[in-house]
C-alpha cells in the first residue's frame, strides 16, 4: 500500500437497526451488497447474516483493521463492512487516522444506513430491558401487581402535575415513568400460570378497542363534533361491556371529587335527571359543587388543585415574611 497506488476503491459501512426484522434492507443496501467484491462482518451472530447468505451474499466473518480494509480496496475494488450493533469505532477511527496522515491514498468512504427505525421502535428496547431487569434484578424480580399498584398511582399524579406545570422536560420523563408501569405489569403478567398475557396482548387489545370505538375514522359512520365522537364512544363502550347501569365501571376507589364528577357526567350523558341527594354536611356540599362544575364543563379536580397551589404559595409567602 502506498500513496501512488491507482484506483483506491470504495469502503461502504453498512448500518442496520436491530429494531426491525432482519432482511428488511433498503434497495441501495442490497445493490451495494450485490456489487461488492468483499463483504465483511466482525459479528458471526449478526442477525442479518443468515438473510444475506440466503440472498447469495458471501459474507466473510472477519474484523479487519483499517489498513487491511484499505488494502482490500486496492485496484478499484469495493468492500462492504456490515456494522455490528455497537458500530465499528475501531475501524472508523483507524480510517480517520490514515486519512489525516496524508500519506495514504484513501478509498472512497461511504456510510450507508440499510434500515431505519419505524415510529415507536424504541418501545422494543424498553421491552427487552424490562425482560432483563425482571430476570436479573433482585428487587424487580420479586415485584407483583399488588406491590406495584401504589407506584402506578404516584406516577399518574406526577404526570398530571407535569402537565399542569407546563414543564415539557418533566412531561417527557413522567410519560416514560407511566409507560414503565405498563410494561412492568405486562412483563409480570407473562408469568401467570393459568392466564398469562404479554405487552403485545395489551397493545393488541387497546388497538382493537380504539378501532371499534372510532367508527367515524375506521368505519362508515360520521362525526363532525367532539360531542358526536363522545356519543360514538359511549355507545360502543356500552355495547362492549353490556352494562346494566351507567355507573358500572366507575371505580369508587378514585379520589372522591373525581368520583363525584364522573357520576354526574355519566348521569348527564345518559340524559338522566337525577336529583342530588339531600343531606347535611360538607360531603353533600362538595357533591353539589362537583356536579355543578361538571355541568359547566369545569374539571373540578384541576380547579381545586389550582386553588390549592395558590393557597400553598400564600402559606410560603407568609412563612417567608415571618422569617424576615
From TrEMBL:
<dbReference type="InterPro" id="IPR011551">
    <property type="entry name" value="NTP_PyrPHydrolase_MazG"/>
</dbReference>
<protein>
    <submittedName>
        <fullName>Nucleoside triphosphate pyrophosphohydrolase</fullName>
        <ecNumber>3.6.1.19</ecNumber>
    </submittedName>
</protein>
<dbReference type="GO" id="GO:0047429">
    <property type="term" value="F:nucleoside triphosphate diphosphatase activity"/>
</dbReference>
<dbReference type="GO" id="GO:0006203">
    <property type="term" value="P:dGTP catabolic process"/>
</dbReference>
<dbReference type="GO" id="GO:0046047">
    <property type="term" value="P:TTP catabolic process"/>
</dbReference>
<dbReference type="GO" id="GO:0046076">
    <property type="term" value="P:dTTP catabolic process"/>
</dbReference>
<dbReference type="GO" id="GO:0046061">
    <property type="term" value="P:dATP catabolic process"/>
</dbReference>
<dbReference type="GO" id="GO:0006950">
    <property type="term" value="P:response to stress"/>
</dbReference>
<dbReference type="GO" id="GO:0046052">
    <property type="term" value="P:UTP catabolic process"/>
</dbReference>
<dbReference type="InterPro" id="IPR004518">
    <property type="entry name" value="MazG-like_dom"/>
</dbReference>
<dbReference type="InterPro" id="IPR035996">
    <property type="entry name" value="4pyrrol_Methylase_sf"/>
</dbReference>
<keyword id="KW-0378">Hydrolase</keyword>
<dbReference type="InterPro" id="IPR048015">
    <property type="entry name" value="NTP-PPase_MazG-like_N"/>
</dbReference>
<dbReference type="GO" id="GO:0008168">
    <property type="term" value="F:methyltransferase activity"/>
</dbReference>
<dbReference type="Pfam" id="PF03819">
    <property type="entry name" value="MazG"/>
</dbReference>
<feature type="domain" description="NTP pyrophosphohydrolase MazG-like">
    <location>
        <begin position="143"/>
        <end position="218"/>
    </location>
</feature>
<dbReference type="GO" id="GO:0046081">
    <property type="term" value="P:dUTP catabolic process"/>
</dbReference>
